Amino acid sequence: MSADRQFFEAVCRCFDLGTLGATPVTVEGGLSNRLFRVTTNQGEYAVKRMVANAEAPSFKRNVEESFAVERLALAASIAMPGPIPVPGSDEALGRITDRGEPCWVRVHRWVSAKRVKAEEIEPGDLAQVGGILAALHRLPLSSREVPAPHVPSAPERNWRAALSSHAGAPALIDTIEVLEDTVRRGYLTDTSRRVLSHRDLDAKNLLRRADGTLVLIDWDAAGSVNPQWDAIGVALDWSGIWHGAVSREAFEAVLDAYTIAGGTLEPVTPASFAGWAEGMLHWLWFNLERSGSTDPGERPRGQAEVEATVRFLPVAADWIANQP
Known about the structure:
Elements: H1 3-15, E1 25-27, E2 34-40, E3 43-49, H2 59-75, E4 94-98, E5 101-109, E6 114-115, H3 123-137, H4 159-163, H5 169-188, E7 195-197, E8 206-208, E9 214-216, E10 223-225, H6 227-237, H7 248-260, H8 274-290, H9 298-321
Antiparallel strand pairs: 1-2, 2-3, 3-5, 4-5, 6-8, 7-10, 8-9
């Protein structure tokens, strides 16, 4: 019996999924974690072996808090895969041993749907995204989920050293400075108003069912957020920026659908992009560290994401800086 099969059998026992059937299939496209399609005598499941920051002391608490948001969204009938909690605990994460090492695992019911490709995005998709976002922002928010607004200290990051091996690094430093300034401006003008949201509602986290319905996946970052930052960040993600250009029409289409569905927006300024800029800086730094990993599986993933990010980041920074 292979170590891999032992791992999946342990997952089945932990989550009470039944008896493992055919060999699990690796699902391509996961950027931070490892995803598998697992078939048992009880059905089909998406099994995620957690990798990104999985050994951080706060990891389990953060995922379980996001799981609470996920359950609220499920109760609100937002289209999404059904999560499978660990039986008897109502927790998202199960602790499994993989090749002698403990790891965290999540499980959802498998959804028959296709990934949303950038070249296939339609106006109806943009309208759905705006509507989904408005529905998320209507989820009930308890007082304990509302953090006090603050101006975070800038992380100690040596960007020049980290980017030294990448072409175009000197020019990218200017871009990073623009984004860091955007984050500072955002926090200086932040208010205490918060809503719950997915916090990563871009194309990689949506599937399209045969009837055209978009299904929202990967809830591990869900939590409370400034609604203006969230809406502007989602609109920018769907504007085409990941491919090096911004469509003003697509950007505004998402925001129009959001407001039609009941969302509230303030005038857009560079500070409105603080959440998006902060997320991109975290993502770039994470992948710069990952690109130097001793793990042969992680290193190429990190390198590929760094290369993809540095291609569009200057365009985004220029677009943000030129907002009214």
